[in-house]
Amino acid sequence: MRTLCPNFDKEDALDTVLEVPIPEEMFTSMGNSAALRWQNMRSWMRAQRSDKLSNSHLANGAGNDQFMLLLKLVGSPLIPFQVQADHTMTLPIRDGSIEASTAKYIVHQYLAATGGQAALDSLRSMYAVGQVKMVSSDIHQGRDSTNAKHNCEVGGFVLWQKNPDLWFLELVVSGCKVSAGSDGKVAWSQSSSQPSQASRGPPRPLRRFFQGLDPRSTANLFSNAVCIGEKSISNEDCFTLKLETSTEVLRSQSTPNTEIVHHTIWGHFSQRTGLLIQFSDSKLVRMKAPKGDESVFWETSMESQIEEYRYVEGINIAHSGKTTATIFRYGKSLSNHRAKVEETWRIEEVDFNIVGLSLDCFLSPADVKNEEQGMS
Description:
By secondary structure, the chain is an alpha+beta fold.
């Protein structure tokens, strides 16, 4: 991945370090010659600094808005639960129903397969760099069915995490940028075309952590799950664990104009290795109409295949995978609309216990702070 860029302000100065490393494939697609590529890179970097949408090779207008929606959907979603992040929870296996006890036993096996409780509890922070390839397709509206397929778009991301409840993500795909984070008090997100938005309710972790990057948080998340049976995934026999979000939690994350009807999570753990090989969730949101009783429903389903586990400093981390997200909009007086995006991701670098990673690295944007102060 490309991490440096020439200093465009001073020719004799040192190279500029890119905030988000980008794949060589993305840099190559910026032009037919080296001079044009650097020129487009310069324009893109200046656009990012001024917080404006860059002139990427993606089409502007509705098509670009559609791609940005899908990029945020698959790139920076949150899970509905608060998760203990600074130590591994240990709950009695025999405490509860058979389904709950079975789930706790499966989680114990997962802890052993990812490095053990002692190794996981030694982690205080994490850093990861990865590259992604994204394809969006199957967009239908009304009776006239149209397929809007994008070429495969490439990009990269940087992810930082520090205990407890602190994390920051920057994701760049073909000139479109999404940032998200948590300062320990509120989780937020923003994009190169939209201002910052704070999430309702207490701070929650990024879904990407549960794609094989954070075994400790994954174990803590599923420690309160139930085992609902077995399933074969990619010729691998798995135990399926399920989590339902409570009504109280859903209500705290809803707004006066939106109601989260349900949000369900499933984890599929290999019976052979004990590792998590698929993470799935489904969410239904009802958008309330300003007048009348008509509502618009948005149903989102995401499924992540998790692969290529390798040990890094004694922790078994997944280094590749594929996430498929589908969003479906429907309502009484609206034509149905469906969109699908696939993200293939690969971890290029990961490290733990980062020296010098301070709280300043996780500060929320100024507009989020102002909104938070206004609510308090």
